[in-house]
Amino acid sequence: MLGRLEQLTNIYGVSGDEGRVRKYLKGALDDMGLAHKTDAMGNLIVHKAGKGRRVMVCAHMDEVGMIVRGVLENGLLAYEAAGLDPRVVISKRVAVGRDDVPGVIGAKAIHLQNREEFKRALAHDELYVDIGAKDRADALKYVKPGDRICFTTKFERLGEDIVKAKALDDRVGCAILLELLKNDYECDLWAVFTVQEELGLRGAKAAVWTAAPDVALVLEGTTANDMPKAKEHEYVTRMGHGPAVTFMDGGTVARPRMFKALQQTAKEAGIPYQFRQGSRGGTDGGAINKALDGCVVGGISVGCRYIHSPASLASVSDIQNAYLLAHAFLQTKKFDEVL
Amino acid sequence: MDTKTLETILTTYGPTGHEDRISSVLRDLVAPYADEVYNDKLGNLIALKRGVSGKKIMLSAHMDQIGLVVVAIDEKGFLRVANVGGVNAPLSAGHQVVFENGTRGAVYFERNEKGVGEVKMNNLFVDIGAESREEAEKLVNVGDMCVFAGRFALMGNRLSCSTLDDRICCAALVEAIQKARSEHDVYYVFTVQEEVGLRGAGTAAYAIEPDLGISLDVTGTGDVPEALPMAVELGKGPTVKVMDSSVIVPPAVRRFMENAAAEAGIPFQREVLRGGGTDTGAVQRTRGGVPAGCISIGTRYIHSPVETCDMRDYENAVKLLCACLERKELPIA
User: Fold this and answer.
1) In sequence order, what are the residues at sequence separation of 6 or more whose Cβ sits closer than 8 angstroms to the Cβ of residue A100?
2) A230 touches chain B (CB under 8 A)
């Protein structure tokens, strides 16, 4: 699974441009001998037909990034960003468009800044991607408006238990879901790798109509704010303390039976877990639980430090235990119990 | 409705997503009058009273209430909380809360330089009388929800309680199912998770496919000192919704309600609610669209522990609802 995660996080797949992630996953599914289909929005869907409840397990393929808005006279690219703090993009290396044109996001050097400028964080519309073009015409040879701009950070192991990568949110979910698909479960399983989650759960909103689930599991990378100046009730999750079980987020309030069933599953299987101790932030679960005539959603997340930035961290043991928890839940068939 | 039943409906625990207990109270109250009673996957309680016309009306009042959810417990046993629905942090400090298992708590705030008015949700804590984390964890756990301890107070014609939004309308549905005569199939739906984004009403409407939706909820008033201008006053009758932030009621549906009120001689007020949505919006946008409207009960101090309404408006809301259900012709939006 870690090998898969390395490959998945190194792929560029900003929201709306998930093609390369999907292609990689299709290859993996083909190798596993699993049939799949891609819907009109680009969601990749695997249906493992079986008896019993319709169960949807999903993870989103897209990652936060930017899009080229236009090219200036001097060849710099103006961009639009979603889900990104402008403070994290400055001085980062990026890749633009299908050809992965290298670029950097620059800002005025410290020598040239006056006191006011020094104190104030720059906004996205004051920052530009520099691809080294002479002028607009030169830049347009390599890029065009609408091209996606992606961070290029490579996967790396840090210390014994930590991985560093871009896009851990939500390639950890994709890697776990792929791993789950190696197993057979006694249910009608719909595995969905969704698109455009970061722009408002757009892929899931469509895919849920195909899967029409009774029960859904959402696999996510979530925030870990276990930092020195944060108070305990502001951590949300702690890296290395096990997968996080959701009681509530911005889009769901877990049905108490589901929340309990996930905890019970973890206890029975001896898997460490923590609570996702926040009430905000959304996942595909928010779109899934209120579609059609409703569905019971459970959230299993891996706490990632520095999420929505070019370099986030996650614990390998958390990722493995998240897999084990999802696997155990599907295996114990608690579906009727949670409905 | 007798005062004791009303008080039970108003004071039974049921924050958003945790509506099982209030659902079972309401179920017992409506079951004797319904042809069918069931809960759906999200927990909506649905009581069907069959008619003969082949048309379906979905009535909805939400049974969830706003509350606080425990996000952490500190080493001294204080609970840290986040809001469930639109809870106002400064208005929460100084009140008592109660958990599903009966555990009581006092809400207060980090008393540093700030005045209570500047308090944010993460400056609040709940003291449940525990002296350590271990002791606290015997009573509550992370993820548990508490609600304001409902102080039910009848003040003349007026009623004050933390849960008028929207249990007063749940009571209205309970009364209506006993009184209304309709030739249509009437689905009395007590919805879940309204306070976090109208989540239950949409899934219920999807399954029911109604020809008409009528939601019942509370609405603001403009009749207290220095209130924001709003032409709704307590005691002047239930309101017929024109719009709120989730819905613009089709004029045909609004007229249907206004005609029903006028013909039955029931006083009513028109309602334009500037902030806040209701299940009406979710019902309206289900499937290919549903003609949907809303009858509201004007309520002061909404989303505070002292919500206050007028029982004459409540009585007339029930009458107006029954008058709507008795009409043969349903509006086409």
Assistant:
1) A12
2) no
